Amino acid sequence: MDHNVKKRLTWVEMYLETRDAGYVCRRCGISRPTLRKWVQRYEKQGLDGLQELSRRPQNSPSKKVSSQEEGWILTFRKERNLGARRIQNELFRLHECRLSLATIHKVLTRNEVKPLKRPKRKIGFKRYSRPIPGDRVQMDTMKLAPGLYQYTAVDDCTRYRVIGLYKRRTAANTLDFVERVCEEMPFPVQRFQTDRGTEFFAQKVQSLLMDWGIKFRPVKPASPHLNGKVERSQKTDLDEFYATADFKDPELPDRLDEWQHHYNWHRPHGSLGGKTPMERVCELAEETPFSDEVSQNYDPTKEHYRDANYRVDLELQRLK
Question: What domain range is 42 assigned to?
Answer without folding.
Answer: 3-50
